[in-house]
Amino acid sequence: xxxxxxxxxxxxxxxxxxxxxxxxxxxxxxxxxxxxxxxxxxxxxxxxxxxxxxxxxxxxxxxxxxxxxxxxxxxxxxxxxxxxxxxxxxxxxxxxxxxxxxxxxxxxxxxxxxxxxxxxxxxxxxxxxxxxxxxxxxxxxxxxxxxxxxxxxxxxxxxxxxxxxxxxxxxxxxxxxxxxxxxxxxxxxxxxxxxxxxxxxxxxxxxxxxxxxxxxxxxxxxxxxxxxxxxxxxxxxxxxxxxxxxxxxxxxxxxxxxxxxxxxxxxxxxxxxxxxxxxxxxxxxxxxxxxxxxxxxxxxxxxxxxxxxxxxxxxxxxxxxxxxxxxxxxxxxxxxxxxxxxxxxxxxxxxxxxxxxxxxxxxxxxxxxxxxxxxxxxxxxxxxxxxxxxxxxxxxxxxxxxxxxxxxxxxxxxxxxxxxxxxxxxxxxxxxxxxxxxxxxxxxxxxxxxxxxxxxxxxxxxxxxxxxxxxxxxxxxxxxxxxxxxxxxxxxxxxxxxxxxxxxxxxxxxxxxxxxxxxxxxxxxxxxxxxxxxxxxxxxxxxxxxxxxxxxxxxxxxxxxxxxxxxxxxxxxxxxxxxxxxxxxxxxxxxxxxxxxxxxxxxxxxxxxxxxxxxxxxxxxxxxxxxxxxxxxxxxxxxxxxxxxxxxxxxxxxxxxxxxxxxxxxxxxxxxxxxxxxxxxxxxxxxxxxxxxxxxxxxxxxxxxxxxxxxxxxxxxxxxxxxxxxxxxxxxxxxxxxxxxxxxxxxxxxxxxxxxxxxxxxxxxx
Length: 766
Prior knowledge:
Elements: H1 3-11, H2 15-24, E1 33-34, E2 41-42, E3 49-54, H3 55-60, E4 76-81, E5 84-92, E6 108-112, E7 115-117, E8 130-137, E9 151-157, E10 166-174, E11 178-188, E12 193-204, E13 209-210, E14 220-232, E15 237-250, E16 256-260, H4 266-275, E17 288-289, E18 298-314, E19 317-331, E20 351-353, E21 362-364, E22 370-386, E23 390-406, E24 423-447, E25 456-482, E26 487-518, E27 521-532, H5 543-548, E28 553-566, E29 571-590, E30 598-617, E31 623-636, E32 639-640, E33 647-648, E34 658-669, E35 676-686, E36 701-715, E37 718-727, E38 735-739, E39 745-751, E40 756-765
C-alpha cells in the first residue's frame, strides 16, 4: 500500500542526473557528528539506527520539546497521557509504557546532557537552546541501561563559548493567541571561563473554548530559564555546570464523547444511560464545550542541577563524571466529562454534599492530586584505547529516587448529575509513596583486528544492573448518594494500607560486527539486550494485586544495518532490519467497569519486526530532500484475559505499521536584499493503531507543515531573519488518543491540534 511512496521518493533522485551534478559542483551532505556511544563520531559509522536533528533543523520544524517530535521520526510515536497532558507516553518501535505512574518506569530513556530523567511526568517541558536531538532506536541496554528496552532520546544543549559574546532573541506570534519569546546570552568571562543565560516564555490558547467557568481546554502558559557555566581548568580538564527551571500551566485537552455508552449493568452503565441526556456526541472536534464546574489547570514545576566533568588525561585515556539532581512537582486536574452541556462531571473539583446544615453537610475542597519527585544520579566513565587495535569504555552508574503522590482528601468526584433528585459521588483518599535505588556497572570493548585491511570492527558490551524498589499505598474509597438535604448513604468500597518491596537484577549483553565494505559504505550486524525493572502497580484497587506486583521484562533484539554515501556525498542511504522479542512483557490490563484502574501482568512473549529506511540527497545546489520510512509488524500471543477467563487477542497499543516523513528544504540567495530565502516543507504520516476494540482505535493521519524564511539580513550590528510558518496546514481533525472506558461514552477522542499559523523573528549578535 505504501510502497508507491517509497518509489516516488526514489524517483525524485534520478541517478544519472545526480551523477552529472556531482561532477559539476562541490555541494555535499554535511557530516553529522553524534555522541550516541559516548564518543564523538560520525553518525555514518555508528552502528545504531538513529535519527538526528541539529539546531537549524529543530528551528525549521519548530521543535522545542520532546512532544514536538511526534510524526517527524519514523518508528517514534509520542502522545500525551489523557489524565495529564504534561505527561508524555513515548514509544520507539512499538515499545513504550501505556500508563504513567511513579511505580512503573518508561521503556524509552530520556537524557538531558547524558543525565537520565526518570519520570514521564513533565517531559513536555521546553528546553532552552537545544544544539541537537538524537533518537536511538532499539534496546540500549548496555551503554544506557535503565529502562531503554525501546530506545533512548538524547537532548544536547549548547554549551557556553569562551571565544565570543553572542546574543540571540527569538520572538513568535500566531493564531490561537500565540506569543513566544526565547532569549539567549553567551558571556565569555576569560579565555577559560564562560557563562550562558537562556530564558523562554510561551502563551497559547487551545482549540476548544470553554463556555463554562474556568479556563479553556488546551490553553498553555509556560516559562523557564537556564544557566550554564563552563570552566576550563587547564587545557584538558573542563567543568560544565547547569541549572534549569521550568513552570508549565496547562488546561488538559477534552476527552470528547463520540459514541454513547452501550447498555450494560452496574453503576457505570446506569450513569451512562442518564449521562446521555447531557452529552453532545460528535465525531468531529467540537470548537466549544461547557464545563459544569470551574476548569482548573495542571501545574508542573521542574528544576535541576547538573555537573559534567571531562578530563582528557592523555591521547589514550579520558575520564568523565556526570552528576545530576532533579525535582518535579505536579498538580494534576482531571475532567473526563467534557462533552456535557450541563449537570455532568467527572473531575477533581470541590463539592458540597447535603444542602442542609450541621452534620449532614460535607464540604469537599478542591482536589488536584499532587506528585512530588526528586532524583539523583551519578555516573563515572573511563574511555580509552590500547594501541591501535582496542578501544574501551567502562563505567559505574548509581541512581536514587523518592516520590509521593497525594490525592488526599479527595481521590475523585466520580459523577454529579440529577439522579432522582440527588447526586452520586465517589469520594475517598489515596496516597502513594516510592523509594527506588539502582546501580550498574557497564563496559564495552571494540577490537579492530589486523585482517581485511582493518575494515572489520568487533564490539562486545555488558551491563550488570541491580534495582531495589519500595512502595507504600494507602486507599480509602466510598460511594455517596446525596439527595440535597442530607447524605442518605455512605457505602464503603475499598480501604487498605499496604507496604511492598522487592529487588531485581539483570545482566544484559550486546555484540556488534561492523564492516567498512568500501569507502563511505558500512554494514553491521547487532545483537542487543535490555531490561526494565519490575515493581508495583498503584492503579490496582485491591491490596493483593498491588502487593503481588510484577516482575522485570527483558527484550532481545537482532539488527542488520547499512549506512552508505554515494556520488561524492550527494546521496546518503541508511537502512536497518530488526527483530525483537520480549520475555515477561509488562502488560497493563484495564479492569472492566473502571476509568483508571488497571492490573499489570507479565506476558510470556511478544515480538516486533521491521525495517527503517532513510534517504537524503542534494540533487541541486541548495536543495535538500529526505525520506524517512519505517515498517513495523508487532504481535502479542493470544492471552487469557485474567478478568473474563477467556482466550483473547491483544495488541501492542502504540505500534503503527507504517510511519514516514518527507522533507524538502530549498535555500538560495536573493537580490537586492542580500539575504537567504528558504522554503522548508514536510509531509508526515502515522498509520492506524491502538486497535483494542471496535470503538477503541486511532485512525491513520498525515500532517503537512511548511516554513518560508528570509535570513542573513544585516541590521543593528547583527543578523536578522523572519519566517512565516504553518503546521497541520490541511487542518485535519486527527485522533491523538482514544478512550473506551468512560461512563458516558464507549468512544471518546482527544483531538490533536488544528491548523496553526505564525511568524518568527530572530536576531543574532556576535
